[in-house]
Design a protein that fits this description.
By secondary structure, this protein is an alpha/beta fold. The protein is built from eight helices and eleven strands. It has helices at 14-26, 40-46, 63-70, 87-95, 108-127, 155-165, 174-181, 192-207, and strands spanning 6-10, 30-34, 51-55, 78-82, 100-103, 135-138, 143-146, 149-150, 171-172, 214-217, 221-224.
Length: 227
Amino acid sequence: MIKNRSIFIVEDDHKIAAILSDYFCSAGHHPQTFPDGRSVVSSVRSSPPSAVVLDLMLPASDGMTICRELRKFSAVPILMLTARTDEMDKLQGLTDGADDYVTKPFSAREVVTRVNALIRRYEGRVTSDPAASKYLVDSAGQRIAWQGTWLKLSISEYHILSAMMQNAGRVFSRDQLLDKIGEQSLSSGDRAIDSHIKNIRRKIAAVDPDAGCITSVYGAGYRFEGG
């Protein structure tokens, strides 16, 4: 059962926000409400929640704009609330990065159920491999999330790290990692891998200072330990 998760509720209608907050509390979660979108992005960055319930129409910044901003750095599940019924509006919300939507008026119980399903799906993707309890490799989007935050990787760094993550515990030589870069390796020297690994370590450490997940193997190359 999904419980004890931090849920951000971004809703300018105080009555709706209060009802949703009560239902999430009753379900064992820890909701935090935001009356507008001004501090949501910075709050997600500093204290990542397990899910965001995001109203489409907000003062200061609309839900779609916030959604796009969150997707620049976070993989947090987003359920969008909308009073609009036009199909294109709903599709636009999903295109901008929302995982699901509910049209007003809605059942607060349904919102909780849908959010729990999104959390279960997200956490299942992250932990489906025991070695991948902290990270998510999005092959289609060529991006990697660490503890729910998208790492700002170059395309070469993505290919190197994703290969290592998908083969946790295996030692990769520098030549093998150069092969993962593909055509870009033609302009890269052997020691370029050392520079890429240094950058990858730094970017993971910015999210999780205690990670220490990439080990140097003397005379052989590098190994990803699985976080």
